[in-house]
Automatic annotation (TrEMBL):
It comes from Dactylosporangium matsuzakiense. Gene3D superfamilies: Alkaline Phosphatase, subunit A. It holds the Pfam family Sulfatase. This is Sulfatase N-terminal domain-containing protein. Keywords: Membrane, Transmembrane, Transmembrane helix. The chain crosses the membrane at residues 29-47, 59-77, 84-110, 138-159, 180-198.
């Protein structure tokens, strides 16, 4: 009798799972989406503008000649040569994307392109600003993310180019025809002068190469300029004779630029403070003369403006700054010291040792750690301006003091410009605890920076506070022996004043002794605290020589 024996069940342990219905189309869609995103990144790299104000639809409607050449190379080379070319092109495009993003940030903040040789030194102050504004954890997180992006971009760009090259070769006929049509269109647009004919990537790379070449040659040029000095060997007995016995206060008001007194968004409120101050000081017997200086920088890098004014040299990059500090240039500080003044420096934004201060020959150097301040920070600003000026009176102008020359940056008008303290009675300043409740007044930076109107209002209010503090100090403590020279260090960033703003900053000299202002009557400066249309404009590096000549 036959017995049917059923076969054993099949072993399906290692059998591949049948693809679920619809999985393959989904994968295909994802691949194409990734390809299109990669192509968009490549196009963005080739055509992206350097300034946020150019981020319009028309700013991206361009035919990049570099992209057409890249496609032609894809089609022309084969085998291992194509792999090498794609790898090199990927690294170059990755570098270009990073540079263009840096350029975007630098034009937004400093109104200039990123310098690949000299600007790495700015990472530390940038980190400090972010940390003060948003907190240490946010600063660390942003730094880590930026580092990962810098490492990943060249790799991702190379992989993207390989994918696009495979597509171009697979559809060679269509790719060749499309490239030819776009090349003709690019040529036509070029002849007609239309912006659609783009060579922005080549221009961007050329700019970086030019900056590197300039940096290499600039060091020797600056060194030669530093050796030309008509005052280096002048005896102290022949320097600054017209200021003997005076306390000279040199103060830089952070971000106080021409726009603060002429831009309709800020001028009405700022000029009201200056005009009221002029009237009040005149009633107390003070006079003032004012004009403009052209700063070497804008948006940031305040130390370079300070160095320019004090040294009489044009310091517009960190290489020049380092060269200056390593040399023996005769500065205004040195001139006052040689002539018998006590040299003071009060740097309220500093929270660590500052070795560079030795170059400026201070007898006393104070910062936020030893100025006696016990109050709160105001975002980036460790010490409010009014307290800084009160400390100047307490530390440098005590009864029976030697005549002083003191440099003070007023930093309450430093970005992010919020929160801002209020003026209090000078007898209430004390150790700064009076400001304890003010540090939380108004919008914090992460709120104020959400809209351009809020941040511009914050900027205006900060300038009003800084100038009000300085004017109030002169009203309260000024006497026949006080001479105040106050000026801006640079214009604020383009987010406040736009891309086309000048580099000019107001400068004012205030004195009660009429002989002080009589010495500069030939300068043609205007009366009062506020410079108006037609006020003289000098380069900032010209001030040292003119000042030493006038008061010799």
């Amino acid at each position: 009798m036959a017995v049917d024996i059923a076969p054993p069940p099949a072993d399906t342990t290692d059998a591949p799972e049948a693809p679920a219905p619809g999985r393959r189309p989904v994968r295909r869609v994802l691949v194409w989406v990734g390809t299109l995103l990669g192509a968009a990144v490549v196009l963005f790299t080739l055509v992206t503008p350097d300034r946020l104000t150019q981020y319009t639809f028309g700013g991206f409607v361009k035919i990049p000649i570099e992209g057409l050449l890249l496609v032609a190379i894809f089609l022309a080379v084969r085998g291992w040569m194509r792999t090498v070319v794609l790898s090199v092109a990927g690294v170059i495009l990755g570098f270009l994307l990073i540079i263009r993003l840096f350029n975007l940030g630098f034009y937004t903040a400093l109104s200039r392109p990123f310098d690949p040789v000299l600007d790495w030194v700015l990472l530390q102050p940038a980190y400090g600003l972010v940390s003060s504004s948003l907190g240490e954890p946010a600063a660390v997180l942003i730094t880590v993310i930026l580092g990962l992006v810098v490492l990943a971009v060249p790799v991702v760009m190379t992989l993207t180019l390989r994918r696009l090259a495979r597509l171009a070769v697979r559809h060679q006929t269509a790719t060749t025809r499309g490239t030819a049509v776009l090349a003709v269109a690019w040529a036509v647009c070029g002849v007609l002068g239309l912006q659609a004919a783009s060579d922005g990537a080549v221009t961007a790379l050329g700019t970086q190469i030019s900056l590197v070449r300039r940096d290499i040659n600039d060091g020797e040029k600056f060194g030669q300029q530093a050796q030309i000095d008509a005052f280096r060997d002048v005896p102290g007995s022949q320097l600054l004779t017209a200021l003997r016995g005076k306390d000279v206060l040199l103060t830089f008001v952070e971000s106080y630029g021409r726009d603060a007194v002429q831009n309709p968004q800020y001028a009405p409120q700022v000029n009201a403070v200056l005009d009221a101050g002029t009237t009040k000081l005149q009633s107390l017997g003070f006079g003032a003369r004012t004009a403009f200086l052209t700063s070497p920088i804008t948006g940031g890098g305040s130390w370079m403006a300070h160095e320019t004014l004090l040294s009489g040299l044009w310091v517009d990059n960190n290489q020049r700054s380092s060269s200056l500090l390593a040399g023996d240039r005769f500065t205004l500080n040195a001139a006052f010291r040689r002539s018998g003044w006590h040299i003071g420096g009060i740097m309220p934004a500093n929270d660590r040792d500052w070795p560079e201060g030795k170059f400026f020959q201070y007898h006393d150097l104070y910062d936020s750690r030893n100025i006696g301040y016990k109050g709160p920070k105001f975002s980036y600003v460790p010490v409010p301006d009014q307290f800084t000026l009160a400390a100047y009176q307490r530390l440098e102008r005590q009864p029976g003091h030697q005549p002083t020359f003191t440099e003070i940056p007023l930093v309450s008008s430093h970005a992010p410009w919020t929160p801002i303290p209020q003026l209090v009675g000078w007898d209430q300043v004390g150790d700064g605890t009076v400001y304890s409740t003010m540090s939380t007044d108004g919008d914090p930076p992460d709120v104020a920076w959400r809209t351009s109107d809020k941040i511009r209002t914050a900027y205006r209010n900060s300038i009003v506070y800084s100038l009000s503090s300085l004017i109030s100090y002169v009203e309260t403590y000024g006497d026949d022996n006080l001479v105040v020279v106050f000026l801006g260090d640079h214009q604020p960033s383009p987010i406040i004043v736009g891309d086309t703003a000048s580099h000019d900053v107001p400068i004012t000299i205030v004195a009660k002794d009429p002989r002080v202002l009589a010495k500069i009557s030939g300068w043609g400066w205007q009366d009062g605290l506020r410079p108006r249309d037609g006020a003289p404009v000098w380069r900032m590096d010209q001030f040292r020589d003119r000042f030493l000549t006038a008061y010799r």
